[in-house]
Amino acid sequence: MKRPSLGAILLGLIPFIAVCFSVSLWDRISPTVFGLPFNFFWLVAWIVLTPLCMWGAYRFELRRESGTENQKGGER
């Protein structure tokens, strides 16, 4: 099993940090976005954005694997 690339790790950490550690920055009810309190909108938005970050991490890994396969194929 290969270790994930730094880019994939960082893209995976973005949603985690946005949901877990930014609560103190936006923990308010008074502003609303699309009729939702801002804190609820923030969490729902990250539920939608998380798969995009994971897709980006997957693309990083695909690019890295295809690069190593090309290098191995050229050594033969």
Structure description:
The chain is mostly helical and 76 residues long. The protein has a domain at 36-64. Helices cover 75% and strands 5% of the residues. The chain has three helices and two strands. The protein has helices spanning 6-20, 23-26, 38-75; strands spanning 32-33, 36-37. It has a two-stranded antiparallel ribbon. α1 runs antiparallel to α3 (38-75). The mean pLDDT is 83.
Quick gist of this model?
With 76 residues, the chain is mainly alpha-helical.
What keyword list fits this structure?
76 residues, two-stranded antiparallel sheet, 5% strand, mainly alpha
Radius of gyration: 18 Å
Helix content: over 70%
- Order of H and E elements: HHEEH
Distance separating the two termini:
23 Å
**Beta-strand level of the residues, as a percent range?**
5-15%
Overall pLDDT metric: 83
Strand order of the largest sheet: 1-2
Q: Give the oligomeric state of the chains in this entry, treating copies of one chain as homo and distinct chains as hetero.
A: single chain
Output the structural class: mainly alpha
Count of runs of 4 or more consecutive helical residues: 3
Globular, elongated, flat, extended or rod-shaped: what is the shape?
elongated
Model regions low in confidence, pLDDT < 50 over at least 5 residues: none
Largest sheet features: 2 strands, antiparallel
Number of strands: 2
